[in-house]
Every structure is written in structure tokens, then in C-alpha cells.
């Protein structure tokens, strides 16, 4: 990776790299890591060694600057930022640790890969936004498949500069050590990672993104969770391998060096990678990794070389003392945490009510979704600006009809928004987009949400992939395919500017911990309290499909019908023409006879 000339780096951006390790939970025993450790080098202070008794949350924030030559040509003045979010909270069983103050409310993001890009806020004209979205689609499509080096060249064919080979070799070795650990349960999220496999999002086409909000694009792919992620201390997930392909340029970035017996000891729950262009034309990369640090002794946190590193511990309550220390610092110093930091935590970690979603006519081509969300009384919220919102996700096998939504405006409210294609003529298997979203905003503010939304199934091409059953769920049936929709995300939301000002502390370390929920951030919303799905929620759909075993017979019958129909039409047209011709001839003959009779 290229680093820019230090003389051209803006002062507020850290030189080369900076990182912070923030720990929340039971107070650990911490000591400075030096030459006596197994990972020691010539440096006198490499980091820290700690022991956690009851487990802790770990937030790693990393910033670096990349040369724009290492990336596809950034759409200057058009794209403000791009980000990749990988979240697993929604598909994990409840963790034994309470949520940290800097975590987003549980259930505010669906489990999967979220990729988005936002246009420059200065763009206001509709034509400029349309052009910006087109450019961002092209850039994101190229970027997700971008190789760092391929046979000495970048993806666009230009020669590659020689990167820091020693650093890359060390990272590859760390990755290999991580994969050798049998406790890492990567298969549970449905991705494979051998030499011939890249991440599922690395081959996105421009049409894979849907337009959202005023000037953003968005892509989502759920994790195929065949097993619930139980958070057991012997199970760990390394999400960095899922973010991009194995040869992607971002894989040359650093990763948090938290080790136990020489192996990575973090269980990643969420990772966000954000890219923004600096005024000087470089690209600032920010990584935020939220992980579970399982109980263990002799955990080593290695500070990155050529990086400013610091470690902070945040006490569970404001009654206890928190501290921070930089790499090489002989002792910790107190970290002053405002009471608003914990006050916000009390609100966001408590459920804001319950949401119930059910399907009607679930075995037909035209089912409907009934969504009811009831909010509890939440103190500290201004009911004049905060409201209940719901995000309803549909896969590509179903779609919303925007004309029906318009007719239902009295029930859905005037603030509802539909994002995604309709495409009635195309089967689900050839849809380029991942799906669509319906954003419901309830008015008046904080009133309960109770709506019924019709949806429609796209026709399927045989053989249909999925669990086929009978019309009443018979396991041996082949007439229907079952699909369980993702439950709607329902939350009490507030305008983003207002919500953020409620808990901003002014401390750069603390404010960098705030998690920006995927999609809600692009919509300009802040979730103050999530309404989780109730036990009565049932999103099962049973779509009628053709039997693949009959496909050959259907093709033959279809061809025979086509040719028979064509032959009948040709015969009918021929006979019609003949009758018309004969009639015309007879008319002429009769006319001549009549003329001859008159003359005689």
C-alpha cells in the first residue's frame, strides 16, 4: 500500500496509521508488554498484556491514509464516502455480557453484508444526483472486485508499486494461524474461504445496488446462518475475511493484534470499513471492529508498528474510574467520561416496545404482510420529532407494487418510501438487484404502527432452489417453495442531527466509538430504541412453483402447442385469404353477368 508524502497530509488526519483499543466490561489486570513477551521485538514497549475474568467487549478503531493510485479513480466532488458493514448481532443468541454504551441497539441491523455509498451533500439538482448515483455504482462495482496486485499489476493493468512485503507476509501468516484454529466458526455464516473463493460481495455489478434516501445507493446480502452463533467462548468469528476478497487492496490493511498463545482471540460481532476522500485527494480509511473478548489470561495486545496506539478501559458505570494509556506510556491516566455517555446507554439498550409481523395468504402469489408495532413510554424523547419507523426487507423473489402503495397512502402514511425495482417481466433468478425495501414512518409521532402491505411473487425458473413442500407444508410435496422473510426492523427513531447531539461528548476517543447503524445512517435516522419481534411473529411464505421433474414435458408440450398454434393460424389466415379471393372473383363474375344482361 502506498502512503502519501507526509508534507501533503492535512494536519487533522493522523500520519500513516493510528489505532485505539477500548475495553468495556469486568476490570482487567493490565501490564505493559515489553521484551520479555513471546512477541517481543527490538521495541521497548509493544503494547499491553491483560487478563479478563468475566469477558469484555473490545472496540478497535483504526485510521490510515491510502494513496488514490491504490484505488479506482475516486469520483471527486461526487461521492462523499463509501462503507462496508458486516453485522452478526441479529443472528446471534443473547450474549452473556451486557451491551456496551457505544453499541447500537440490538436488532437495529440485519445479519449480513451492508455496502453503501453516499453522494456529495452539495449536489442538489435531480440530474446531478442521478449522474452521481450512476458514477457511484460504477466505482463500487470496480472497487469490490479490486485486486491489490495481479501478476505485478493492478486490476486496471498498470504496474504496481512494491508494497511492504514484510508486513503483508506477517498478515498472511496471522491469517493462516487464524484459519488453523478449529474454534473459528466461519462456516456458520455461509461463506467459504479457500484460495479459489472470494467474498460473496466481491463481484457486484452496478445494477446490484438500489437507490435509497436522497442521494445514496445500498446493497445487502444476508448471512446464510445454518447455525445460531451462540457466543460460546470457544467459538470465534473473524469477519475481516468476509469483507473483501483474499486479494483485495483492503486486505493489506492492518488488523487488531489481540492474541492469546500466539493466536487471535477476538470474536468479531461487527466490522465497519469507511472510505472518505480528503481535501488533498488522498483516501482516508477508517475501520471500526466490535468484538467479544472471551475470558482468558495472558492476552497480548500488540501495538502496530509506525502507528500511534492507545488502550482505554471504560468502567461499566459512572461510579467507577476509567483510564487510558498510550503505547510506551509507563502508567495509565484517568479517562473522564461524561454522564451523558451512560445516560444514552440506558435508553438505547432497553427495548422500546414490541413488533409483530405476520403473513396473510402466505401460500399464494399475492400474499400480504401485517405489521403492528407498539411503543412503550420512553423518557427523554421529544414526541414531536421522534416516531416509530419500520424497514421491511424483501428478497428478489418478491416485490412491492408502488401503485398499490400509493393507493394505500391513507393507511401507510404520506412519509412511506419504496426503494428497489419492480420488473414484472423478469424472473427472480435473473434479477440483478438483491431485493427491495419499504420504509414506513408513522404519524402522528410515537403513535402505534398497524399496517397491512400487499406484496407479489416473481415467477421462478426451474429448477427452483429452496425447500419445496406441498400446499399445506407436506415435506414430500413439490408444489411450493418456502421462504422465511427477514422480520421488519422497527424502532423509535429521531432525526440524526438531534439524536447525535444528545450523547456527543467532545472526546475524540469516546465519540469515535459511536456505531452508525447500516441503512439507518444513510436514511438520516438514529435508533433510540428498537422494538424487537414478538414471539408471535411469523414471516413464512409458501410460493407456488412448477415441478422441475415436469420441465422437459412442459417444454415439449409448449413447443408442440406453439407449432400447432402457428400452423392453425397459418391455416386460418390461408383459408381467410382464399375465401376473400374467391368472394372477390365471384363478385367480379356476377358484375360482368349483370352488365351483359343489361346490354342485351
Describe the structure in your own words.
By secondary structure, the protein is of the alpha+beta class. The chain has 9 helices and 29 strands. The chain has helices at 126-144, 165-180, 240-243, 339-348, 402-407, 409-412, 496-503, 508-511, 551-599, and strands spanning 17-25, 29-33, 47-52, 56-66, 79-87, 112-119, 210-212, 216-222, 257-260, 263-264, 266-277, 283-293, 296-302, 307-314, 322-326, 333-335, 353-360, 368-375, 387-395, 398-399, 417-419, 435-441, 449-454, 456-457, 467-469, 480-484, 489-495, 525-530, 540-544. It has an 11-stranded mixed beta sheet. The protein is elongated.
Entry keywords:
alpha+beta; 20% helix; 9 helices; five-stranded antiparallel β-sheet; 600 residues; single chain; disordered N terminus
Brief sketch in words of this structure:
The chain is an alpha+beta fold and 600 residues long. 20% of the residues lie in helices and 30% in strands. Strand 15 (322-326) and strand 16 form a beta hairpin.
- Ranges where pLDDT stays below 50 over 5 or more residues in a row are 1-15, 35-45, 149-200, 230-234, 498-502
Rg over C-alpha atoms, rounded to the nearest angstrom: 30 Å
Mean pLDDT: 77
Total helical elements:
9
Basic shape: elongated
Strand proportion: 25-35%
Question: How far apart are the first and last residues' alpha carbons, in Å?
Answer: 108 Å
Helix percentage range: 10-25%
Order of neighbouring strands in the sheet with most strands: 7-8-6-5-11-12-4-1-14-15-16
Structural class call reads alpha+beta
Major beta-sheet overview: 11 strands, mixed
The count of DSSP E runs of length 2 or more, i.e. the number of strands, is 29
Amino acid at each position: 500500500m502506498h502512503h502519501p508524502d507526509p508534507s501533503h497530509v492535512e494536519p487533522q488526519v493522523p500520519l500513516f496509521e493510528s489505532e485505539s483499543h477500548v475495553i468495556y466490561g469486568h476490570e482487567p489486570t493490565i501490564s505493559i508488554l515489553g521484551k520479555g513477551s513471546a512477541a517481543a521485538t527490538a521495541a521497548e514497549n509493544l503494547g499491553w498484556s491483560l487478563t479478563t475474568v468475566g469477558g469484555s467487549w473490545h472496540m478497535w478503531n483504526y485510521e490510515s491514509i491510502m494513496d488514490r493510485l491504490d484505488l479506482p479513480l475516486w469520483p471527486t466532488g461526487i461521492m462523499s464516502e463509501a462503507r462496508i458493514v458486516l453485522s452478526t448481532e441479529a443472528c446471534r443468541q443473547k450474549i452473556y455480557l451486557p451491551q456496551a454504551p457505544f453499541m447500537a441497539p440490538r436488532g437495529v441491523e440485519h445479519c449480513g453484508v451492508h455496502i453503501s455509498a453516499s453522494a456529495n451533500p452539495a449536489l442538489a439538482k435531480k440530474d446531478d444526483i442521478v449522474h452521481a448515483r450512476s458514477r457511484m455504482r460504477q466505482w463500487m462495482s470496480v472497487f469490490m472486485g479490486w485486486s491489490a496486485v495481479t501478476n505485478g499489476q493492478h486490476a486496471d493493468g498498470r504496474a504496481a508499486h512494491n508494497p511492504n512485503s514484510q508486513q503483508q507476509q506477517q498478515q498472511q501468516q496471522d491469517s493462516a494461524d487464524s484459519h488453523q484454529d478449529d474454534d473459528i466458526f466461519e462456516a456458520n455464516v455461509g461463506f467459504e474461504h479457500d484460495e479459489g473463493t472470494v467474498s460473496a460481495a466481491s463481484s457486484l455489478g452496478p445494477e446490484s445496488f438500489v437507490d435509497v434516501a436522497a442521494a445514496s445507493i445500498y446493497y445487502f446480502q444476508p448471512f446464510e446462518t445454518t447455525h445460531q452463533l451462540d457466543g460460546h467462548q470457544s467459538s470465534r468469528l473473524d469477519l475481516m475475511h468476509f469483507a473483501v476478497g483474499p486479494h483485495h487492496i483492503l486486505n493489506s490493511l492492518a488488523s487488531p493484534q489481540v492474541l492469546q498463545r500466539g493466536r487471535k482471540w477476538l470474536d468479531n460481532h461487527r466490522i465497519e470499513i469507511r472510505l472518505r476522500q480528503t481535501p488533498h485527494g488522498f483516501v482516508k480509511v477508517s475501520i471500526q471492529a466490535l468484538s467479544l473478548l472471551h475470558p482468558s489470561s495472558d492476552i497480548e495486545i500488540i501495538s502496530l508498528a509506525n502507528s500511534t496506539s492507545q488502550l482505554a478501559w471504560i468502567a461499566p458505570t459512572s461510579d467507577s474510574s476509567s483510564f487510558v494509556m498510550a503505547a510506551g506510556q509507563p502508567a495509565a491516566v484517568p479517562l473522564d467520561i461524561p454522564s451523558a455517555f451512560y445516560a444514552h446507554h440506558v435508553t438505547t439498550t432497553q427495548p422500546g416496545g414490541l413488533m409483530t409481523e405476520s403473513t396473510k395468504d402466505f401460500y399464494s402469489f399475492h400474499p400480504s404482510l401485517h405489521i403492528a408495532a407498539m411503543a412503550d413510554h420512553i423518557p427523554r424523547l421529544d414526541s414531536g420529532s421522534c416516531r416509530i419507523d419500520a424497514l421491511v426487507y424483501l428478497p428478489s423473489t418478491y416485490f412491492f407494487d408502488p401503485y398499490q402503495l400509493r393507493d394505500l397512502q391513507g393507511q401507510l402514511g404520506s412519509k412511506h418510501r419504496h426503494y428497489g425495482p419492480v420488473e414484472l417481466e423478469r424472473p427472480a433468478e435473473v434479477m440483478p438487484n438483491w431485493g427491495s425495501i419499504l420504509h414506513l414512518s408513522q404519524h402522528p409521532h410515537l403513535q402505534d404502527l398497524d399496517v397491512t402491505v400487499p406484496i407479489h411473487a416473481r415467477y421462478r425458473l426451474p429448477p427452483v432452489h429452496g425447500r419445496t413442500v406441498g400446499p399445506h407444508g407436506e415435506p414430500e410435496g413439490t408444489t411450493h417453495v418456502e421462504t422465511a422473510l427477514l422480520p421488519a426492523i422497527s424502532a423509535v427513531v429521531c432525526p440524526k442531527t438531534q439524536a447525535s447531539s444528545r450523547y456527543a461528548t467532545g472526546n475524540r476517543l469516546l465519540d469515535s466509538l459511536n456505531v452508525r447503524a447500516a441503512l439507518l445512517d444513510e436514511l438520516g435516522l438514529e435508533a433510540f430504541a428498537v422494538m424487537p419481534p414478538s414471539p408471535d411473529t411469523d414471516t413464512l411464505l409458501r410460493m407456488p412453483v412448477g415441478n422441475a421433474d415436469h420441465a422437459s414435458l412442459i417444454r415439449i408440450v409448449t413447443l408442440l402447442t406453439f407449432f400447432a398454434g402457428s400452423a392453425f393460424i397459418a391455416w386460418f389466415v390461408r383459408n381467410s385469404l382464399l375465401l376473400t379471393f374467391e368472394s372477390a372473383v365471384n363478385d367480379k363474375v356476377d358484375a360482368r353477368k349483370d352488365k351483359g344482361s343489361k346490354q342485351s
